[in-house]
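We emphasize that the prediction below concerns an isolated chain of 309 residues; any contacts that depend on oligomerization or on bound cofactors are therefore not represented. The input was used exactly as deposited, without trimming of termini.
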Amino acid sequence: MEFNVSKESVGERLDNFIVQNVDSITRSYIKKLIDDEHVVVNQKKQKAGYALKENDIVSIDIPEDKEANIQAEDIKLNIVYEDEDILIIDKEKGMVVHPANGNYSGTMVNSLMYTHKDKLSSINGIVRPGIVHRIDKDTSGILVVAKNDNAHKKLSEQFKVHSITRKYIAIVKGIITEENLVINYPIGRSSKDRKKMAVTYKNSKEAITHIKVLRRFYDSNVTVVEATLETGRTHQIRVHMAYIGHPLVGDEVYGNKDTKFKVSGQMLHAKVLGFIHPTTGKYVEFESDLPEYYKEVLKKLENKEQDNN
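Result of the prediction step, given as a token string:
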């Protein structure tokens, strides 16, 4: 992969620049890549502390992990649709999509290696076969997997131009008074914590989230919303909602720890996914029902509302 350094990044350290622009990669691994000359600037080796100049070309070659690291595992997946080109999976809360950062077991990819080995696209290499996009570990819901390179390319292009329909259901803290709102703030890597994303105007990308209020629970001081992604940045909904003062219930990364609801991880469910099918050319849409843990939280909120009325 290659990056052309813009004016906003002039003077930034090479290693910091990579952290900002490449997801799921640790600082220690970046140093190793630089030391092993898998990172070059203008086709020349540079140190991690090299100060970038405008129009520098940063080239990064991430070696593929050895296949032995990715073991096929008999882990049940909820496959809601499958044809010759795509798989639609309704992912459970708590499951990581693909191996990363030394976590090479228990992921969705480990399961796919057991059921669909050699039947997935190869574009993203051995570690992420078929993976076109991701949802967070503690986000449940629907995502698409490509079974061949042609399908992968066509789906990736739709994600790139933001033509994919992606709707999420979230429970957020506080009462949102508007019926609808558009959150339009750029997102990039946090300068305070490199493992987190943040609203920032430095080394960031456009991020737009459309919010529709579905239900307000005044007694519990929470709002249920439908969040539609116009763009797809890492942790976009979580970052945007926290930024406007309504962090997701259960989100310990972008909100405060809250034991009131007794949930682990953010209350976020990928409910609707729609796109142009890579072979038929027709629009298809898939929907995931709210999982039981989510329904139980909503039931508790409903019961509290009724008890106080």
